[in-house]
Design brief:
Length: about 625
């Protein structure tokens, strides 16, 4: 039900046609620039190879891991050297870099609160902490003192904690792995386990009023999983949007904002679920593959069931199944899950997206407006601490959004009349051929282009997008759609030709769609047949006649309110991201044309494959 508006495919990136992918940085550059870079890297590789075969220099007092020589290598060189190093560690069970288990016993999110009162130079050796995290930076001060900046993993409480780990040789556990061996093979990006105690450092030259840094003083450090690749740096940044989307795991690992966006999305989903559970709604699951694509005006994906030898459709909406459950004596149901629509990919649309729909027996569209205001405004307050947020679009325009109830309400046809300066036909004539000619004239007059087929519903929807949706910055309900735009909505109780429906918009984009449900099986059949006629006219998004659903209606659907909200779209506004990619863990991407040329780790290390098991025929 949510996000029912039609979309157009994203504009083709013609300007990138003559650019080539630099596999090291992820950028797209001209052919001459790419050749220049490749020559420079070849020179650097030859220089590194020559240095590797040169006689060893006198050893310094610094441990080998201090920087790992990273600053002298490009990412490909680093990958090859690091891969061989890790493979050598694997040959000795005592240096296995992939242990089965490390026992963590401390909630790092409490670290600052619990130990923030420690004074400079104060430590608590009796308080053993066992934590784990990823190394983001390494600093040394001689051979016996190493500092690691680590970050722990995200959970429901936080996106992870930044911590400093102080490693001093004199603190190393007696009888354990020697200090030098513990740290010799650690690099940026490695995941390590730390056994230690809390304290504050006591650096020299502290300014008045400053304190040493709250840290974990390590008595033991263990490599839990090495990172074979060089982490991004100033020299080799990781900022290209396309590369970030393709290597989302690295984007989450490296960019706190990306991780926080997905963390906030999780909080949002949990709050919404709790909201409906507290109001005695039952969460249910309905099929993802349908024999008939229904429940929303959208183009479906087609798949095939081999055993039954039949085509099936990935669901565009769960609506019809959820209403069948209301027929089956469930009074309040909701489902949160994936839908699939074979439409355009752009900044606000992904082929698969998450929505929540609920159906509430004995409620109508006015009850749904109230619960929408209550849910969304309280959600914003819970997540941000305020009813007011900011959202910046792709053009750099920043909107101040006030989510507090009550929301603005706009009646569709009167608002179009005001915008166009034209009196529309009577509501009960909006479906006629005469109205079609009128709408074509209005579109031409207002310079609004509507792609074919030019049905009445599509033209009114296009006009609404141009002249009403563009005014919706703060949350706004657009009400009372024509019946032919809403094949599953109940007719308006006092305005013949309209239906009891609303769409909620924020920052010019739809976030929710709801209506009093049509429960008259006779009327519903006529609506389905009208949709079938629109499909015959070339509207691929129109619905077909669903006999199973009509049969369910004949058993009696009570007066019901139905509602849907787009989780992805709402997450975009609440995390201030104008691209839907940013709020999806792994967004849909076009196929990457460039073949993979980089050697795999097993190839570099010369790892031999295990013998294949013979299969008897």
């Amino acid at each position: 039900m949510a996000d029912s508006s039609a979309t157009t495919p994203a504009a083709a990136a013609d300007q990138l046609a003559n650019l080539h992918l630099d596999e090291v940085t992820g950028e797209r550059v001209s052919k001459s620039e790419l050749k220049k870079r490749q020559k420079q890297r070849q020179k650097e590789a030859e220089k590194a190879a020559k240095a590797a075969t040169a006689p060893p220099k006198a050893t310094s007092s610094k441990p080998k891991n201090a920087a790992g020589g990273e600053e002298d290598l490009n990412p490909n060189q680093y990958y090859e050297i690091r891969t061989r190093q890790v493979n050598e560690l694997l040959k000795n069970p005592e240096t296995n870099p992939y242990p089965h288990k490390f026992q963590v016993n401390y909630d790092d999110s409490n670290f600052v609160e619990e130990f923030g009162s420690l004074k400079t130079g104060e430590t608590l050796p009796e308080k053993e902490l066992r934590i784990a995290g990823r190394i983001y930076n390494i600093r040394t001060a001689g051979s016996k003192l190493i500092f690691y900046d680590i970050r722990t993993s995200a959970d429901t409480k936080s996106i992870g904690t930044r911590m400093q780990v102080v490693c001093q040789a004199q603190l190393a556990k007696e009888g354990g792995v020697p200090f030098e061996k513990q740290h010799a093979h650690l690099r940026r990006g490695d995941i390590i386990g730390i056994v230690g105690f809390p304290g504050r450092t006591n650096p020299k030259n502290l300014k008045e009023g400053e304190q040493g840094e709250l840290s974990v003083f390590a008595t033991e450090v263990q490599l839990l999983s090495p990172c074979l690749h060089m982490l991004p740096s100033v020299r080799y940044p990781f900022a290209d949007a396309e590369q970030r989307a393709r290597m989302r795991y690295l984007d989450m690992l490296w960019n706190d904002r990306s991780r926080e966006t997905l963390w906030q999305r999780s909080r949002m989903v949990r709050y919404i679920r709790d909201f409906f559970h507290e109001r005695r709604f039952i969460e249910v699951e309905t099929p993802m593959m349908h024999a008939i694509a229904g429940g929303a005006t959208a183009l479906p994906f087609v798949t095939h069931h081999n055993d039954l030898d039949m085509d099936m459709f990935m669901r565009v909406a769960p609506e019809l199944f959820l209403k069948k459950m209301i027929v089956g004596q469930f009074g309040k149901v909701f489902e949160m899950g994936k839908n699939f629509r074979n439409e355009g990919i752009d900044l606000t649309h992904n082929p698969e997206f998450t929505s929540i729909e609920f159906y509430w027996a004995y409620a109508d569209v006015y009850d749904l407006m109230s619960i929408t205001e209550e849910l969304v405004s309280s959600l914003v307050k819970e997540l941000t601490g305020s009813y007011k947020t900011k959202f910046t679009n792709q053009h750099g325009e920043t909107y101040e959004v006030n989510w507090e109830a009550p929301w603005r309400r706009v009646e569709m046809i009167p608002a179009l009349e005001e915008a166009t300066g034209e009196k529309f036909p009577p509501y009960d004539q909006l479906h006629t051929d005469e109205t079609n000619a009128f709408l074509q004239r209005i579109c031409k007059k207002m310079n609004v282009e509507c792609p074919p087929p030019l049905t009445n519903a599509r033209m009114i929807d296009k006009l609404t997008g141009e002249f009403i949706e563009e005014t919706c910055i703060n949350p706004t309900f657009i009400l009372e759609h024509p019946q032919m735009m809403s094949p599953l909505a109940k007719y308006h109780r006092s305005k013949n030709g309209l239906c009891e429906r609303f769409e909620a918009f924020v920052c010019k984009k739809e976030i929710a769609n709801a209506y009093t449900e049509l429960n008259n099986p006779f009327d519903q059949r006529l609506r389905f047949e009208e949709q079938a006629r629109q499909k015959d006219q070339g509207d691929d998004e129109a619905q077909l006649v669903d006999e199973s659903f009509l049969n369910a209606l004949e058993y009696g659907l009570p007066p019901t309110g139905g509602w849907g909200l787009g989780i992805d779209r709402l997450a975009m506004f609440l995390t201030d991201n104008y691209s839907i990619r940013e709020v999806l863990a792994f967004p849909f991407l076009r196929e990457e044309k460039t073949a993979h040329k980089e050697k795999f780790a097993a190839e570099i290390a010369g790892v031999q494959p295990l013998p294949e098991e013979g299969i008897r025929k």
